[in-house]
């Protein structure tokens, strides 16, 4: 089975850090993600997703992110059942984050700017190498149209 989620958006409010009865740290927050199209009135639409992260990732989010910060998350989708204050059975669907990264420039994130090029520790103990997206983007402004050659195809397929 496959259960993979990747989102990038802005925090709707500051993340909240709590501890479970067993002492594990857990942070929860909501992320707003713009849709790629506008509605009939020309307004951008957004989806709002609840996100949960544990232990070191929870500390990382609460220390370096605040309302409005741009965040990139990958993890898995999880559903859980609970009973609300009125005794009604409810289902919560949330993203359990395994990797959390800064997605905006340093000036838009809070905290110590020396850490803005690093990802949060993965909850499974493994964290893939993090490349700064701004440095990885190639520059296409240099060069001219003379750098490209015309390919004669004679209506034949090249394979």
Question: In a nutshell, what does this entry contain?
Answer:
The protein is mainly β.
What does this structure look like?
The structure is a single chain. This protein has 159 residues and is mainly β. The protein is 9% helix and 40% strand. The chain has helices at residues 55-64, 133-136; strands spanning 5-11, 16-19, 25-38, 44-54, 70-83, 89-102. The model is unreliable at 108-118 and 123-136 (pLDDT under 50).
Topology record:
Layout: E1 5-11, E2 16-19, E3 25-38, E4 44-54, H1 55-64, E5 70-83, E6 89-102, H2 133-136
Parallel strand pairs: 4-6
Antiparallel strand pairs: 1-3, 1-5, 2-3, 3-4, 5-6
Radius of gyration, in angstroms, nearest whole number: 21 Å
What order do the strands of the largest sheet run in, or round the barrel if closed? 1-3-4-6-5
Binned strand content: 35-45%
Q: Percent of residues in helical segments?
A: under 10%
- N-C termini distance: 36 Å
- Give the overall shape, derived from the CA principal axes: elongated
Structural class: mainly beta
**Main sheet, how many strands, which sense, barrel?**
5 strands, mixed, barrel
Using brief descriptors, characterize the structure shown.
40% strand, 2 helices, elongated, 159 residues, mainly beta, 5-stranded mixed β-barrel
């Amino acid at each position: 089975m496959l259960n993979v989620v990747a989102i990038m958006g802005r925090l709707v409010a500051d993340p909240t850090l709590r501890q479970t009865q067993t002492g594990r740290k857990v942070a929860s927050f909501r992320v707003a993600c713009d849709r790629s199209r506008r509605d009939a009135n020309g307004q951008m639409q957004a989806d709002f997703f609840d996100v949960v992260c544990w232990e070191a990732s929870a500390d990382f989010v609460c220390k370096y992110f605040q309302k409005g910060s741009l965040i990139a998350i990958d993890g898995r989708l999880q559903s859980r059942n609970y009973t609300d204050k009125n005794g009604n059975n409810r289902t919560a669907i949330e993203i359990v984050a395994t990797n959390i990264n800064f997605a905006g420039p340093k000036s838009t994130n809070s905290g110590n700017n020396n850490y803005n090029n690093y990802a949060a520790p993965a909850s499974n103990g493994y964290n893939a190498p993090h490349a700064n997206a701004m440095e990885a983007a190639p520059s296409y402004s240099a060069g001219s149209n003379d750098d490209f050659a015309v390919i004669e195809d004679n209506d034949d397929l090249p394979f």
